[in-house]
Amino acid sequence: MEQIKLNKENPKIEFRLNAEDSSILVKSVYATSQINAENEWSDFISKVIITVELKYLVYDDQQGRVIDERSIKYPIHLFFEPHQVHPVFHLNKLIKNETLTLGIHTAQKFYQTLSL
Q: Which of 72, 78, 98, 106 sees the fewest Cβ atoms within 10 Å?
């Protein structure tokens, strides 16, 4: 199991998806704070958003500018238990790759990048 640390300096991580059936399982999220505030997690968690974004780059020009990129975005919600001392959120959220068609072409493509 790999641990990923996201913070203000490193707020995003990207994964390359190699196949249509690629997936990532988010087992749990652990939140820490440098503020010494006991049981203020409900306020803290209400300001935290984990967003999943699947992206497929359709075309970029010779200068490296993105001309067309398809993406879908959705949130992962953290639910706070009032009697929780340490904020560990057991999500067991499976993020699966999806397929899409581009324009009039019938060939299906899968998203290439997943960002958290």
A: 106
Q: Indicate the SS3 state at residue 87.
A: coil
Across the strands, what pairs with 54?
Answer: 72, 114
pTM: 0.75
Residue in the structure block whose two tokens are 């992962």:
76
Task: State the number of CA atoms in the 13 A half-sphere of 101 facing the CB.
Answer: 5
Alpha carbons 41 and 8: distance in angstroms, whole number: 18
Please check whether residue 13 is in contact with residue 113, taking contact to mean a CB–CB distance below 8 angstroms. Answer: no
φ and ψ at residue 9, rounded to 5 degrees? -75, -30
* pLDDT per residue as tens, the chain (116 positions): 788 888 888 999 999 999 889 999 999 888 776 666 555 666 777 777 889 999 988 776 777 776 778 899 999 888 766 676 667 777 888 999 998 888 787 888 899 999 99
